[in-house]
Design brief:
By secondary structure, the chain is of the alpha+beta class. It contains 12 helices and 12 strands. It folds into 3 domains: 5-132, SPRY domain (Jelly Rolls), CATH 2.60.120.920; 210-253 and 281-355, no CATH class; 361-391, no CATH class. A hairpin with a 4-residue loop joins β6 and β7. The two termini are 40 Å apart. It comes from Caligus rogercresseyi (Sea louse).
């Protein structure tokens, strides 16, 4: 007889017993310190389902009629629903109903045997359970989701609808879907909450990064958002390193927009060197002037990293980033090297975020996830089924 104690988030660790010979026995739960010389359910903080009469025993020697009797060959399961504080049993995969309510926490699976020669085999989840526990979990999750869906929303329906429309438009505009956002706003009659020109500016920076025109992306960022890169030296360093990678690859670029401004500075001014690279450039070995300029740029980046570490502390990610970028100089064709496409996703993220406010949907999701963590900290078991990501699928 197997006695699986159901696992997963809402249930205690699985335990099981298989009785291979007939006997007088009980299956249940017990708190620490319970008398182990008596069947589960007879003593305080002990709960049991006995096979000889099918009665349930709740911390008492007097049983209540509960289910069928069980004997050799039967599979008995015991599960605890921590969300409801209840205990149920199954026989041969069939749910027998709730046996106990308002049970305390921290109970242990217990099998009591009183007849000499009884043999029990246990299953703590190492084998599949006969009872469909996944279906039970699904039903519990569905009940909670229905409860959440039926929760009354304060205010009139029109007010709530307006809030949802603002959230949708905020998401579209924030992530750069300007045309779609404008069309949505026209259809709903809402007023845009964010300057579209700011969104388009971020789109422009992102497109430059994606196309490998890092020099232009840096200059445009400095023009549109003066002081941003100086206030975020880590972002500036990542942009400059990526600029170095593109130059090693031979992208044609005039780093200062066509003028002969300052050649370098200790904070990465090496990007101001005018570099005219061919679309299909010769190898670095055949272009000593190009090598010299790249080396000078690299020294400026090394100096910039030193200043960054002096102000913010050593950063292994930055050091590896620069080391990987320098390693491209060893390749005959840097565009085919492993490090060629590194950091692009990170830079694109930076490119579309400067310096935009967080979208309303992002704030809402962050708030909800924090509330779920607070529920977990306060031992509210329902939070195990209130996964925000489940609702977004």
């Amino acid at each position: 007889m197997q006695v699986p104690f159901v696992p997963l988030k809402a249930f205690p660790p699985p335990a099981a017993s298989t009785i291979l010979k007939d006997g007088y026995m009980g299956v249940g739960l017990s708190a620490q310190g319970v008398n182990l010389n008596r069947l589960p359910g007879w003593d305080k903080n002990s709960y049991g389902y006995h096979g000889d009469d099918g009665h349930s025993f709740c911390s008492s020697g007097t049983g209540q009629s509960y289910g069928p009797t069980f004997t050799t060959g039967d599979v008995i399961g015991c599960g605890v629903n921590l969300l409801e504080g209840s205990c149920f049993y199954t026989k041969n995969g069939h749910h027998l109903g709730i046996a106990f309510n308002n049970i305390p926490p921290n109970l242990y699976p217990t099998v009591g045997l009183q007849t000499p020669g009884e043999i029990v085999d246990t299953n703590f989840g190492q084998e599949p359970f006969l009872f469909d526990i996944e279906g039970e979990m699904y039903e519990t999750r569905s009940r909670l989701h229905r409860l959440i869906g039926d929760f009354p929303v304060p205010g009139k329906h029109g007010e709530w609808q307006g809030i949802l429309q603002k959230m949708v438009s905020s998401y579209l505009v924030h992530h750069g879907y300007c045309a779609t956002g404008e069309a949505f706003l026209r259809g709903t009659g809402e007023v845009i909450s964010e300057d579209l020109s700011s969104v388009k500016n971020r789109q422009a920076v992102r497109k430059l990064i994606l196309s490998g025109r890092l020099g232009e992306a840096i200059r445009l960022t400095e023009k549109l958002y003066p002081g941003l890169l100086e206030s975020r030296p880590s972002l500036k360093f990542v942009l400059k390193v990526r600029h170095f990678i593109e130059l090693v690859g031979g992208v044609e670029e005039d780093s200062n927009g066509g003028g002969g401004s300052n050649n370098s500075s200790s904070n990465g001014g090496g990007t101001d060197i005018i570099l005219r690279m061919e679309v299909d450039p010769p190898s670095l070995a055949s272009n000593p002037i190009r090598i010299e300029r790249l080396i000078h740029f690299g020294r400026c980046l090394q100096s910039m990293l030193g200043e960054l570490e002096a102000s913010t502390g050593k950063n292994e990610e930055h050091s590896k980033m620069l080391s990987d970028a320098f390693s491209l100089l060893a390749y005959a064709d840097p565009w085919e090297s492993p490090g060629r496409n590194m950091h692009t996703a990170q830079l694109c993220h930076f490119g579309i975020q400067v310096p935009a406010r967080e979208a309303a949907t992002g704030k809402l999701l962050g708030h909800i996830k924090k509330l779920v963590r607070v529920m977990a900290d306060n031992d509210l078991g329902t939070c195990a089924f209130a996964d925000v990501d489940d609702f977004l699928k």
